[in-house]
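Deliverable D2.4 — example input (structure tokens):
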């Protein structure tokens, strides 16, 4: 079984009811721990709670994150 722990997160709201969450997370299992960065898209329910639609995990290496950020800026 894998447990996930959010270390740090921030949100960007867009549209009427949507958000993008960028978070540093840790996956903990019997085999050990793995740090990663996740980007998740979601929306707010009427009661203000969050519902997630999709998520991807990015590598923790600084050079890879910078390369991904540059690609996003140029597209």
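Example output (designed residues):
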């Amino acid at each position: 079984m894998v447990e996930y722990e959010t270390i740090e997160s921030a949100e960007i709201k867009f549209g009427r009811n949507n958000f993008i969450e960028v978070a540093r997370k840790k996956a903990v299992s019997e085999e050990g721990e793995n740090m990663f960065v996740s980007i998740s898209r979601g929306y707010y329910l009427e009661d203000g709670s969050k519902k997630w639609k999709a998520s991807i995990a990015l590598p923790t290496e600084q050079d890879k994150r910078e390369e991904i950020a540059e690609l996003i800026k140029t597209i």
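The chain has one helix and four strands.
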